[in-house]
UniProtKB/TrEMBL annotation:
Residues 88-221 form the AAA+ ATPase domain. This is ATPase AAA. InterPro entries: AAA+_ATPase, DNAC/IstB-like, IstB, IstB_ATP-bd, P-loop_NTPase. PANTHER family: ATP-BINDING PROTEIN RV3427C IN INSERTION SEQUENCE-RELATED (PTHR30050:SF4), CHROMOSOMAL REPLICATION INITIATOR PROTEIN DNAA (PTHR30050).
Length: 244
């Protein structure tokens, strides 16, 4: 169709039948047809955005069991889900020990952002550093940096699991510095911010990095038990009951 309305071309007969049954006026019929076309286009953009985002899954906050983390205030997480921090090009940090659901919440926020038609991208810190180092070694650093600078929302998972060398820490600083007040970062970490000097290996660089990351940042701590351990223990109990 020359107007670029492929869905409308396929469904026009169906819409005409609905309009006839509802005795719609001409303007209402046009509004119906164009609204449906726009909805299909939006759904297509969202599916494409999720596909290229590298998210490990597409879980939402509806899938998160807040009752398992009684010290976590659901209102703080749901406030983030309004995406006001994304609109403000601010950041969010989710801190706590492994297994508490930090990545789940980070992914859920990214999914919400994608559904609001923000571009998103997910990476672990280790993957990001490895990719940037490889690009730097082949003279493609500027191009590769763009992968982490273009999205409206960058999710950086598992910060602090491996200490960084100074050259690696400098690459991380470049990403955070260049995104400062230009795009949002959602970061998960098992380290407190006071421990970032150990992670980065340079107190001055750690301070400069945190200065930009935390200037506009909502911080949520999740210090409860591990979801993964909970699920593993439940599976063991089921196996034991079956064997009894």
């Amino acid at each position: 169709m020359k107007l670029g309305l492929p869905h409308l071309a396929e469904a026009l007969t169906q819409y005409a039948q609905r309009a006839d049954e509802a005795k719609m006026g001409y303007l209402d019929f046009i509004d119906l047809a164009l609204s449906e076309e726009l909805a299909v286009r939006k759904d297509r953009r969202i599916r494409t955005g999720l596909r290229i985002s590298k998210l490990p899954h597409h879980k939402t906050l509806d899938d998160y069991d807040f009752s398992f983390q009684p010290e976590l205030d659901p209102r703080k997480v749901k406030d983030l889900a309004t995406l006001s921090f994304v609109e403000a090009k601010a950041n969010a940090a989710l801190l706590g020990p492994p297994g508490g659901g930090k990545t789940h919440i980070a992914v859920a926020l990214a999914v919400a952002a994608c559904r609001a038609e923000y571009s998103i991208y997910f990476t672990s810190l280790d993957d990001m550093v490895r990719n940037l180092k490889a690009a730097e070694a082949t003279g493609r650093l500027t191009s590769k940096l763009g992968s982490y600078l273009r999205p409206a929302v960058l999710v950086v998972d598992e910060v602090g699991y491996q200490p960084l060398e100074r050259a690696e820490a400098n690459l991380v600083f470049q990403v955070i510095s260049k995104r400062y007040e230009k795009g949002s970062i959602i970061q998960t970490s098992n380290k407190t911010f006071s421990e970032w000097g150990q992670v980065i290996g340079d107190e001055v660089l750690a301070t400069a990095t945190l200065d930009r990351l935390l200037h506009h940042c909502d911080v949520i701590s999740i210090n409860g038990p591990s979801y993964r351990l909970k699920n593993r223990l439940a599976a063991i109990e089921r196996d034991q009951e079956s064997a009894a």
